[in-house]
Amino acid sequence: MKTIAILNQKGGSGKTTISINMTEALRRQGKNVVLVDSDPQGSARDWAAAAEECPFPVVGIDRPTIDRDIKAITDRDFIIIDGAPQIANLAASAIKAADIVLIPVQPSGLDVWATADMVDIIKQRIEITEGNLKAAFVINRVIKNTKIGNEILTVIADYGLPVLETVIHQRVAYASTISEGQTIFQGSHLDAIKEMNDVINEVLSL
Protein backbone atom coordinates (compact mmCIF):
# COMPACT_ATOMS: atom_id res chain seq x y z
CA MET A 1 0.00 0.00 0.00
CA LYS A 2 1.32 3.44 -0.95
CA THR A 3 0.20 6.77 0.49
CA ILE A 4 0.33 9.97 -1.58
CA ALA A 5 -0.33 13.29 0.18
CA ILE A 6 -1.32 16.38 -1.82
CA LEU A 7 -0.18 19.27 0.35
CA ASN A 8 0.17 23.03 0.31
CA GLN A 9 -0.56 25.20 3.31
CA LYS A 10 -1.72 28.02 1.03
CA GLY A 11 -5.43 27.86 0.27
CA GLY A 12 -6.62 27.81 -3.32
CA SER A 13 -3.70 25.81 -4.70
CA GLY A 14 -5.97 23.17 -6.22
CA LYS A 15 -5.24 20.35 -3.77
CA THR A 16 -8.75 18.95 -3.62
CA THR A 17 -9.31 18.98 -7.38
CA ILE A 18 -5.98 17.24 -7.95
CA SER A 19 -6.61 14.75 -5.12
CA ILE A 20 -10.02 13.72 -6.46
CA ASN A 21 -8.87 13.36 -10.06
CA MET A 22 -5.65 11.54 -9.13
CA THR A 23 -7.65 9.06 -7.07
CA GLU A 24 -10.00 8.44 -9.99
CA ALA A 25 -7.06 8.11 -12.40
CA LEU A 26 -5.58 5.39 -10.21
CA ARG A 27 -8.95 3.66 -9.88
CA ARG A 28 -9.27 3.58 -13.67
CA GLN A 29 -5.85 1.91 -13.79
CA GLY A 30 -7.41 -0.93 -11.79
CA LYS A 31 -6.08 0.15 -8.39
CA ASN A 32 -8.02 -0.19 -5.15
CA VAL A 33 -8.07 3.35 -3.78
CA VAL A 34 -9.40 5.53 -0.98
CA LEU A 35 -9.34 9.32 -0.63
CA VAL A 36 -8.67 10.74 2.84
CA ASP A 37 -10.04 14.25 3.38
CA SER A 38 -7.87 15.82 6.09
CA ASP A 39 -9.25 19.33 5.63
CA PRO A 40 -11.72 20.38 8.37
CA GLN A 41 -13.61 22.30 5.67
CA GLY A 42 -14.44 18.90 4.16
CA SER A 43 -14.36 19.89 0.48
CA ALA A 44 -13.68 16.35 -0.75
CA ARG A 45 -16.50 15.04 1.44
CA ASP A 46 -18.81 17.71 0.01
CA TRP A 47 -17.83 16.58 -3.49
CA ALA A 48 -18.59 12.95 -2.60
CA ALA A 49 -21.98 13.95 -1.20
CA ALA A 50 -22.78 15.79 -4.45
CA ALA A 51 -21.85 12.79 -6.60
CA GLU A 52 -24.70 10.64 -7.89
CA GLU A 53 -22.49 7.61 -7.38
CA CYS A 54 -19.11 8.21 -5.79
CA PRO A 55 -16.56 6.02 -7.62
CA PHE A 56 -14.36 5.47 -4.55
CA PRO A 57 -14.62 5.85 -0.76
CA VAL A 58 -13.90 9.25 0.78
CA VAL A 59 -12.94 9.16 4.47
CA GLY A 60 -12.65 12.18 6.75
CA ILE A 61 -9.61 12.26 9.04
CA ASP A 62 -9.13 15.89 10.01
CA ARG A 63 -7.11 15.30 13.17
CA PRO A 64 -3.34 15.60 13.68
CA THR A 65 -3.17 11.81 14.04
CA ILE A 66 -3.48 10.98 10.35
CA ASP A 67 -0.28 8.92 10.38
CA ARG A 68 -1.77 6.63 13.06
CA ASP A 69 -5.39 6.67 11.92
CA ILE A 70 -4.75 5.55 8.33
CA LYS A 71 -3.28 2.30 9.66
CA ALA A 72 -6.89 1.22 10.09
CA ILE A 73 -7.29 1.41 6.29
CA THR A 74 -6.34 -1.96 4.83
CA ASP A 75 -6.60 -3.79 1.51
CA ARG A 76 -5.95 -0.70 -0.59
CA ASP A 77 -3.31 -0.18 -3.24
CA PHE A 78 -3.26 3.60 -2.73
CA ILE A 79 -4.35 6.09 -0.10
CA ILE A 80 -4.56 9.67 -1.38
CA ILE A 81 -4.58 12.39 1.30
CA ASP A 82 -6.18 15.73 0.45
CA GLY A 83 -4.22 18.06 2.73
CA ALA A 84 -5.52 20.88 4.90
CA PRO A 85 -4.37 24.47 4.31
CA GLN A 86 -2.85 26.63 7.04
CA ILE A 87 -2.96 23.95 9.76
CA ALA A 88 0.64 22.99 10.48
CA ASN A 89 0.01 19.99 12.73
CA LEU A 90 -2.32 18.38 10.19
CA ALA A 91 0.23 18.91 7.41
CA ALA A 92 3.02 17.45 9.56
CA SER A 93 0.89 14.39 10.34
CA ALA A 94 0.06 13.89 6.65
CA ILE A 95 3.75 14.16 5.74
CA LYS A 96 4.57 11.54 8.37
CA ALA A 97 1.90 9.25 6.90
CA ALA A 98 3.02 9.66 3.29
CA ASP A 99 5.32 7.74 1.00
CA ILE A 100 5.08 10.54 -1.57
CA VAL A 101 4.19 14.22 -1.11
CA LEU A 102 2.99 16.23 -4.11
CA ILE A 103 3.01 20.03 -3.69
CA PRO A 104 0.78 21.90 -6.17
CA VAL A 105 1.79 25.52 -6.70
CA GLN A 106 0.47 28.21 -8.98
CA PRO A 107 3.12 29.91 -11.14
CA SER A 108 3.58 32.98 -8.96
CA GLY A 109 6.27 33.99 -6.51
CA LEU A 110 3.79 34.44 -3.66
CA ASP A 111 2.50 30.89 -4.04
CA VAL A 112 5.97 29.39 -4.22
CA TRP A 113 7.29 31.37 -1.25
CA ALA A 114 4.28 30.28 0.83
CA THR A 115 5.50 26.68 0.68
CA ALA A 116 8.79 27.37 2.48
CA ASP A 117 7.79 26.17 5.95
CA MET A 118 6.21 23.00 4.63
CA VAL A 119 9.21 22.22 2.45
CA ASP A 120 11.37 22.45 5.58
CA ILE A 121 9.16 19.85 7.30
CA ILE A 122 9.31 17.61 4.24
CA LYS A 123 13.10 17.83 4.08
CA GLN A 124 13.38 16.95 7.76
CA ARG A 125 11.17 13.92 7.16
CA ILE A 126 13.22 12.88 4.12
CA GLU A 127 16.33 12.98 6.31
CA ILE A 128 14.68 11.02 9.12
CA THR A 129 13.46 8.33 6.69
CA GLU A 130 16.85 8.22 4.94
CA GLY A 131 15.28 9.21 1.65
CA ASN A 132 12.28 6.88 1.78
CA LEU A 133 9.89 9.84 1.57
CA LYS A 134 9.67 11.21 -1.97
CA ALA A 135 8.39 14.70 -2.75
CA ALA A 136 7.91 16.93 -5.78
CA PHE A 137 6.24 20.12 -6.93
CA VAL A 138 3.60 20.20 -9.66
CA ILE A 139 2.83 23.55 -11.27
CA ASN A 140 -0.93 24.02 -11.38
CA ARG A 141 -3.39 26.40 -13.06
CA VAL A 142 -1.02 27.34 -15.85
CA ILE A 143 -2.71 29.53 -18.46
CA LYS A 144 -2.38 27.93 -21.89
CA ASN A 145 0.14 29.45 -24.31
CA THR A 146 1.98 31.33 -21.56
CA LYS A 147 5.52 30.63 -20.43
CA ILE A 148 6.34 29.91 -16.83
CA GLY A 149 8.78 32.62 -15.77
CA ASN A 150 12.38 31.55 -15.28
CA GLU A 151 12.41 33.39 -11.96
CA ILE A 152 9.60 31.16 -10.66
CA LEU A 153 11.41 28.00 -11.74
CA THR A 154 14.57 29.33 -10.08
CA VAL A 155 12.75 29.92 -6.79
CA ILE A 156 11.30 26.41 -6.88
CA ALA A 157 14.69 24.92 -7.76
CA ASP A 158 16.21 26.62 -4.72
CA TYR A 159 14.04 24.41 -2.50
CA GLY A 160 15.94 21.36 -3.72
CA LEU A 161 12.89 19.24 -4.59
CA PRO A 162 12.10 18.01 -8.10
CA VAL A 163 9.41 19.60 -10.27
CA LEU A 164 7.19 17.41 -12.42
CA GLU A 165 7.62 17.97 -16.14
CA THR A 166 3.85 17.77 -16.56
CA VAL A 167 2.02 21.00 -15.74
CA ILE A 168 -1.69 21.22 -14.99
CA HIS A 169 -3.40 23.91 -17.04
CA GLN A 170 -6.22 26.22 -16.06
CA ARG A 171 -9.19 24.42 -17.62
CA VAL A 172 -12.93 24.90 -17.21
CA ALA A 173 -13.27 21.11 -17.06
CA TYR A 174 -11.55 20.87 -13.67
CA ALA A 175 -13.88 23.34 -11.96
CA SER A 176 -17.10 22.36 -13.72
CA THR A 177 -16.79 18.63 -13.07
CA ILE A 178 -15.93 19.07 -9.39
CA SER A 179 -18.91 21.37 -8.84
CA GLU A 180 -21.16 18.68 -10.35
CA GLY A 181 -19.80 15.89 -8.15
CA GLN A 182 -17.89 14.39 -11.08
CA THR A 183 -14.30 13.99 -12.28
CA ILE A 184 -12.63 14.95 -15.54
CA PHE A 185 -12.92 11.30 -16.59
CA GLN A 186 -16.68 11.70 -17.00
CA GLY A 187 -16.93 13.35 -20.39
CA SER A 188 -14.64 14.14 -23.31
CA HIS A 189 -12.07 16.20 -21.42
CA LEU A 190 -9.19 14.52 -23.22
CA ASP A 191 -6.49 17.13 -22.58
CA ALA A 192 -7.25 17.23 -18.85
CA ILE A 193 -7.35 13.42 -18.68
CA LYS A 194 -3.95 13.18 -20.37
CA GLU A 195 -2.50 15.72 -17.93
CA MET A 196 -3.75 13.82 -14.92
CA ASN A 197 -2.53 10.46 -16.21
CA ASP A 198 0.87 12.00 -16.96
CA VAL A 199 1.02 13.46 -13.43
CA ILE A 200 0.25 10.04 -11.95
CA ASN A 201 2.92 8.34 -14.04
CA GLU A 202 5.54 10.90 -13.00
CA VAL A 203 4.58 10.72 -9.33
CA LEU A 204 4.84 6.93 -9.29
CA SER A 205 8.28 7.09 -10.90
CA LEU A 206 9.75 9.35 -8.18
TrEMBL record:
Domain of life according to the entry: Bacteria
Cross-referenced Gene3D superfamilies: P-loop containing nucleotide triphosphate hydrolases (3.40.50.300)
UniProt name for this protein: AAA family ATPase
Residue stretches making up the CobQ/CobB/MinD/ParA nucleotide binding domain: 4-184
InterPro entries referenced in this protein's UniProt entry, alphabetically: CobQ/CobB/MinD/ParA_Nub-bd_dom, DNA_Partitioning_ATPase, McdA, P-loop_NTPase
Gene source species: Moraxella tetraodonis
Name of one Pfam family that matches: CbiA
Lineage: Bacteria, Pseudomonadati, Pseudomonadota, Gammaproteobacteria, Moraxellales
